[in-house]
């Protein structure tokens, strides 16, 4: 099971207090998923303060020395270096 955040693209806000965390194929609070809701998957990465990174979060890439958006592809996490 993968942890995700639920983001309302119309209202530009996370659903619920501090983002509604749901587990795919698990129990969660009910909400209607439509074209204005984006699920952001947990990348399995954390920063030095133990804060979790989710897909589409913006972070600093020390290797490339740029800010980038976190992307999940085939189970791997990386930044695109374009944000």
From TrEMBL:
<protein>
    <recommendedName>
        <fullName>YopX protein domain-containing protein</fullName>
    </recommendedName>
</protein>
């Amino acid at each position: 099971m993968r942890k995700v955040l639920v983001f309302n693209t119309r209202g530009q806000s996370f659903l619920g207090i501090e983002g509604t965390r749901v587990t795919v194929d698990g129990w969660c609070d009910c909400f209607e998923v439509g074209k204005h809701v984006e699920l952001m998957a947990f990348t399995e990465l954390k920063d030095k303060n133990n804060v979790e990174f989710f897909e589409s979060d913006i972070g600093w890439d020390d290797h490339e020395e740029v800010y980038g958006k976190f992307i999940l592809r085939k189970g791997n996490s990386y930044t695109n270096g374009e944000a």
